[in-house]
Amino acid sequence: MFSRKHWNILIVDDEPDIHEVTKLTLKKEEFWGAKLKLHHASSAAEATEMLRNDPGLVRTLAVALVDVVMETDQAGLDFCRFVRDELRRQSVQLILRTGQPGQAPPRKIIDELNISGYLTKLEAAGDRLYMEVKSAIQAHYDGAMNETWSLFLDVTREKCDSRDQLADALRALVNQEFGHGNELHVGYDFFGERYVGGGALADKATYDAIIPELLKKAQEQLETGLGTSYYGGSKFVGSSKGIAVKTPNRVAQVDDYVVVQTPVIGRPKDQLATLVMKNPTYPRRLLWYYGPTWRSHLAWLAEAMKG
Length: 307
Known about the structure:
single chain, 5-stranded antiparallel β-sheet, elongated
């Protein structure tokens, strides 16, 4: 959902050569229009201190490549525990690397720390490293999106007693300083009755200036069905082996914008809440997949905002 200049990758290893090999392997790579920004630490203690002193990096860190044996035999695992238990960052993908192939941690530890991958240092270069990092970034994107919105919706449900408070909380979320190459350019239009924007779309006048032409160009895509599904139900036609969806996907990409719309229970079907994102970084061929994900939080907010 964010507009990213880069993906933040942390390399934690006490061997300078490993840092250099990783840099050479990844320095020119690009994932979904954003390059990788490598952050370096030569010990678990240094990496821990780095994250303690940089909340922006904590919020935006996608992947950490962590040596297991550094200042102690368990230093890498201790750092992973710090990320999971103290920072509570489940969306950060942790990939262990070791120079001792027979010293993989027990499965219990891997499961407990939700380790994303495990490589020997001989494997941790070239195509193998590229594929590990690419898969990890995809998993991070999905996890971070769900993590961010689940926590936000949970907190606002508990703390906000009015629509004005909810709008203020959403406005604070989308306009905060994310840092480290992450920006959020979004406009939430709740039936033309209430507007919340952030980044380049913080000003409603900017949104109003682009939305008529944007919706006109997006209309055909917005009305297109989801295509083939493998889940049954009254809204589907065909067999459960692969069925066409009647319901419009209500997601479209026009130039640098993505438009998402959703109807809301209790509103006429032609009244839609609208989300506009400018320059979002996501796997562009999976727009149909992320449309329902974006629409789920939009629908929740629209239900709460309606009056």
